[in-house]
Specification:
This protein has about 650 residues and is α+β, with helices and mostly antiparallel strands. The protein has helices at about 1-15, 70-80, 155-165, 175-180, 190-200, 215, 230-245, 335-345, 385-390, 390-395, 440-455, 460-470, 470-485, 490-495, 550, 555-570, 580-595, 630-640; strands at about 25, 40, 45, 50-65, 80, 90, 95-100, 100, 110-120, 125-130, 225-230, 250-260, 260-275, 300-305, 320-325, 355-365, 370-380, 400-405, 420, 430, 495-500, 510-515. It folds into 4 domains: about 15-130, Immunoglobulin-like, CATH 2.60.40; about 140-200, Type 1 dockerin domain; about 225-325 and about 350-385, no CATH class; about 390-640, no CATH class.
């Protein structure tokens, strides 16, 4: 019944739409033969414009044909568009020619040099031309008109066709599926067909209301964040840094969140410094307190805890309690971590956090003006609220969450540096972030997990790992991790990830690996561990055998095949994942969104540049060119070189 209903709607829509001609190029090779049935149909681009891209080597002859008949005599007399004059007319690249309905045997003559050419025919004014083929720019995926399901830049009957195909079981890529949600209700249903037909008939689509996390992490917005701190509290933050550069202590301030003309002000919030190797003093130099009007500002990462000092509903932004504000220290392109986290989400790795761009200002009491810090990345913290927001998928939000870092978190030493978040500045390999009052029980569970991971024989390991985790999700997560070139990770460097046990019992839990910290990616490479080239490194030899969570899985042929299939899916052309042209379209769109705002009053990171971090060992990598040093090209080659 559903299929019949959809096909009925399709028929009704087709009845309302004007019929379009089919235009062919006919002639000798490469245009088939001299009748429409043997020619090549041109692509209908709308508005009576048709194109065809073919390789031409040497001299060829052709005419255009209206494909309303395959009878040569009838076609030749009525539906053939040819030269105005007698004989064969030469066509030159770059010129425009006027054609006409012709009942003679004259044709156009064109000489190609063995490259691709695009012929463009306009049925309205009967003109055509030819150009050397240029790789088309992929449309900005974030500015396509509402209802443009197929992504060709306009809303037509073709979009209804694609949408109905999805409802009948088609398998679209991520972008098409997202655009198929025409009415914005986060699912694709018959309602989207109805809405799309209304659009085609001149209707409009109301903007969806975004609330909560969707309000704060809104892909369509570029929110402003203003931090306001008293002079005493700011100087206390500088003093805390001077005593310990890795301080995690908060000072009190106020935050204003501005988006779409709405301003949310929350006072008495906690503000602290964040980061690892990126830790810096936010102004001047060690021992110096704030100097109004004579300040040397520096980019730093900030953490904002809206409920640090007052724990009530008023101390949130649409229910969001914490924000992580990150500057683009290792990324002149201003896009690497944005790309990676979105790629995780595109690939279906639901454990990946939300992130977005924002603009940041800071005001210290007594200063005449606030200082503009520029474009920052706004990240979702991995904490209790993160777990609660994904409770149904995790199967519970009251388990044990561990932060793993310091290049010592290889899950291979049960007697390693295991502690809990005790609100001090100490940094541990494994830090318990939730249920800290149950640290002893959490530690026993983590140690037991490590013992089993490292000591089980192969058969027992295989059975156990499938019981305690979603192996497909884990391997998909790691496929994305390797595809984006994340070398400062668990497998290679025992660093930068979270793990979560969804049950506090010693057994019967599910284990989850949570990806984290992806600025050193997409060509920012370093000689480290098993790594020398994060773009060309063999994905099967990414890390060390000592970090066994991944290395042991890949010893099994079926698990290895799952991992390889996920890798190859990511680089498949048309998948809207990491195929170069579509990846570049997303990157250009993000950069265009922020280009006017990156210049800032710190004097640092004031331009967008297509290069990796300056300290890396492969400065040749780029993201937006089409050469062999393009990261997406190099990564695809390394993945395609894998054999099962």
């Amino acid at each position: 019944m559903k299929k019949y209903y959809l096909l009925t709607i399709m028929a009704l829509v087709l009845a309302l739409m004007p019929a379009r001609a089919a235009i062919y190029m006919v002639g000798n090779t490469p245009f088939g033969n001299w009748n429409p049935a043997g020619g090549i149909e041109m692509s209908n681009k709308g508005n009576n414009v048709y194109t065809l891209t073919v390789n031409v080597s040497g001299t060829v002859w052709f005419v255009f044909a209206d494909g309303q008949t395959d009878d040569w005599n009838y076609f030749n007399a009525n539906y053939r568009y040819g030269p105005n004059g007698n004989g064969s007319q030469d066509v030159i690249v770059g010129n425009t020619y006027t054609t006409q309905k012709s009942n003679n045997n004259h044709s156009y003559r064109f000489t190609g040099t063995g490259v691709d050419y695009t012929f463009t025919f306009n049925l309205t004014d009967l003109t055509f031309g030819v150009e050397e083929y240029q790789e088309p720019a992929v449309p900005n995926p974030y500015t396509l008109p509402k209802g443009d399901v197929n992504g060709d830049g306009e809303v037509t009957i073709g979009d209804v066709t694609v949408l109905i195909d999805i409802l009948l079981g088609g398998s679209p890529n991520y972008d098409v599926l997202k655009r198929a949600d025409v009415n914005g209700d986060k699912e694709v249903t018959i309602g989207d067909v109805t809405q799309l037909i209304d659009l085609l008939l001149g209707g409009t689509v109301p903007e969806p209301v975004k609330e909560g996390y969707d309000y704060v992490w809104d892909d369509d917005a570029l929110p402003e964040i203003h931090l306001d701190v008293s002079l005493a509290e700011w100087n206390r933050l500088l003093t805390l840094y001077d005593a310990n550069a890795y301080t995690t202590q908060y000072v009190m301030g106020t935050i204003s969140f501005v988006k779409g003309g709405e301003t949310t002000v929350v006072d008495s919030v906690g503000i602290r410094l964040k980061g690892n190797t990126s830790r810096r003093r936010p102004e001047n130099w060690r021992g110096e307190m704030h100097q109004a009007g004579n300040t040397d500002w520096h980019h730093v990462h900030f953490g904002v805890n809206l409920r640090k000092y007052v724990d009530d509903d008023a101390h949130t932004i649409q229910g969001v309690r914490k924000l992580h504000l990150k500057w683009f220290k290792d990324d002149p392109a201003y896009v690497r971590e944005m790309f990676c986290y979105e790629l995780f989400r595109r690939a279906g790795v639901w454990t990946a956090i939300r992130d977005n761009y924002c603009r940041l200002w800071l005001h210290v009491e007594g200063d005449a003006n606030e200082v503009y810090y520029g474009v920052y990345e706004l990240l979702e913290p991995i904490d209790k609220r993160y777990l609660k927001d994904r409770k149904n998928r995790f199967g519970g939000s009251n388990g044990y969450l561990w932060k793993c870092r310091n290049g010592a978190a290889g899950l291979n030493n049960p007697n390693g540096d295991i502690w809990y978040d005790d609100d001090t500045d100490d940094r541990h390999a494994y830090t318990l972030e939730t249920q800290t009052e149950e640290f002893d029980s959490a530690k026993v569970q983590l140690q037991a997990f490590m013992n089993q991971l490292n000591s089980f024989n192969d058969n027992d390991f295989r059975e156990w790992i499938q019981e305690v985790t979603d192996v497909d999700l884990l391997l998909k997560t790691y496929a994305v991790n390797v595809a984006v070139g994340m070398w400062d990770d668990y497998w290679n460097n025992a660093n930068n990830y979270y793990i979560y046990f969804n049950d506090r019992h010693l057994e019967g839990y599910k284990f989850f690996f949570i990806p984290y910290d992806y600025d050193n990616t997409l060509g920012t490479s370093l000689r480290c561990g098993n790594q020398d080239d994060a773009g060309r490194q063999n994905p099967l030899m990414w890390g060390t055998d000592g970090n066994k969570l991944i290395s042991r899985l890949l010893k099994f042929d079926d698990f290895k095949a799952i991992y390889i299939n996920h890798l190859k899916f990511l680089i498949t052309e048309g998948n809207a994942m990491m195929d170069r042209s579509i990846a570049q379209a997303r990157i250009r769109a993000w950069q265009n969104k922020i280009a006017d705002y990156v210049n800032n009053e710190t004097g640092e990171d004031t331009v967008i540049e297509d290069k990796p971090a300056s300290w890396g060992n492969h400065s040749e990598y780029n993201l937006l060119k089409s050469n062999s040093d393009n990261f997406f090209t190099a990564k695809a080659a390394s993945i395609n070189a894998i054999s099962q």
